[in-house]
Hints:
By secondary structure, this protein is an alpha/beta fold. It has a single domain (28-164, 205-335), classed as Rossmann fold. Helix content is 28%, strand content 18%. Strand 3 (53-58), helix 2 (78-95) and strand 4 (96-106) form a beta-alpha-beta unit. The relative contact order is 0.22.
Amino acid sequence: MKPALVPPTGNGAGHSAPPSPPPADHPATWLPLNRIIHGDVLAELARLPARLAQAVIADPPYGNVLVETGWDTQWQSVADYLEWCQTWTAQCLRILKDDGLCFIFGQLGKREHGFIHLMSQLCRSFQFHDLIVWDRVVGYNERRDSLTPAYEMILVLRKGEKVKFNKESVRIPYDAKTIERYLKDPRYQDKQERLQHLSQGKFATNILSVPSLKGASREKCGHPSQKPLELIAKLILLSTDAGDVVLDPFLGSGTTAVAATQQGRNWLGVELNEEYCAIARRRLAEVQGLFTAGSEAAQRLAGTLAPPAVARDSITAGTEATAAPARVEEPVAVQLASTA
């Protein structure tokens, strides 16, 4: 099966249409998807077309938190950091579809207080949707004069009044004892209907409890602020349908790309650090091995890692780090809206 082509406008349902390859005589009207763009975030985001992504998942440097890294200590002041964040966020919102959501990670603390100011500024500039608390379950190291921090925050921004939001996709299952107890409630006479309802689980709240990657976690792969696949998958499932495009402007070790691939979404990721690009490519290659060769999932993944496309008349190709060798004859691509 050939990989699907996702139109740049509409409600995202276009992924079910019969795919066709990018026209050879009009290469400027297609943008490759499912690839790692190796380059500076401001420069590379500026090259991407408007209203491309259904969701943006941004886990930026927090600003002088991971002081042992060069990439988190590059700003002379909090004001410089906030200005930089305003710039890339504006680009992400431009690239976001009108019914899309933009998720921005951050945390609070004595060194991380800049995120308070950032949230305030972004909510004045853009439309607030929600503030999700990520309960890390496994806390940070103890601190001398404050309580042990155990959460991070995810600011959610929107563009329009209506957003794509799949609340059913992240229900939390009840355990067997809870279901047994609820079935004894005398108010419900139809036990089979009640069991069917309980088996669906309960709706998630805006506190998402997902264990962080501590100690000997098998997911850890060499990035100091790597987020769990389970957490990123929840955000993707909440905000997109199969075939939609997810943008990660700070791809890092590739968690968003891996999660998007596993959930049947297309993706684009920008990453400046070549070492992290290499880690992401390796993780994506490993995910490919989880699918049966020749299956629809394997072909989607291969197409995902073989550049897909969006209209290139407004795009200057950056340095592209292809995620993995293509295993299909034609790339996944998005056709850009005509500018004529």
